Input
Amino acid sequence: MLETRELTIRFGGHVAVDAVSCAFHPGTLTAIVGPNGAGKTTYFNLISGQLKASAGSVHLGGTDITGEPVSARTHRGLGRAFQLTQLFPNLTVAENVRLAVQSRRREGLDLWSVWSDRRETRERAQELVDRVQLHDRSAALASSLPHGDQRKLEVAMLMALEPSVYMFDEPTAGMSTSDVPVILDLVRTLKRDRTKTILLVEHKMDVVRELADRIIVLHNGRLVADGEPAEVIASPIVQQAYLGLAPEVSLPAAIGSPPIPAFPLEGEGGDRAHREQ
Ligand SMILES: Nc1ncnc2c1ncn2[C@@H]1O[C@H](COP(=O)(O)OP(=O)(O)OP(=O)(O)O)[C@@H](O)[C@H]1O
Ligand SMILES: [Mg+2]
Output
């Protein structure tokens, strides 16, 4: 089980994540929703160790990992999608995935298994490249990939690490409509493996509605709702937070009842709210 207790980070006077206590269980996909700037990515960064908490703690399998660096957390099974900056731009797609497979397999490697392990590593990497439908791009340099393919590569590398906790931060953002189902199918496959804990930050409410077993809502860094999807979506706090804040925001047409408001952006910078359209 992954758990955060009163997890908090302040940037100057701004509390980006404010005393968030939440537990995430294996076999559950939790969608994390909230307006732009709510603190979703920052919450992920605190869990994965990219950011250091100002207060509170992170626990994995009963161990307090708050003081551990990213690498130690990854080793424990916390899987955060690789950021584009973590890919090796001058290596091919296949080589990037192979490196991720190797880093996973370093543990337990012995001299007698070097050859077979190499072959297995190659095969496992190829399988992952196929699963994200990058087989045509296997020999292409990571740096040459269009955005959607780079994101697919990130997911392949994340899966290569075989984490017990998967953290997806808007995995389909900026993807073409033909690429989106590839990623969503992989998330569905992971969900069927009832041992995985999946956290998904997602703005597309039809995706949330389909995949989530549970929804938590962050707003101004605080956890303001937590529960079963239909219940959370219909809850007064969500309706009030979103409808109340920006009544002029139109409801997305694709979504059935109860109506789910589009997440408005508070204050300036309204262009970001529409960056995915
Ligand atoms: N390194 C940082 N330094 C200062 N402020 C930061 C930093 N990282 C995030 N913030 C601020 O923390 C708040 C939360 O940002 P965050 O990126 O976590 O929001 P988000 O919910 O992921 O939004 P989006 O839906 O747009 O991705 C924002 O006000 C942001 O400006
Ligand atoms: Mg974000």
Observations:
- The first strand starts at residue 2 and ends at 11.
- Confidence is low (pLDDT under 50) at residues 245-277.
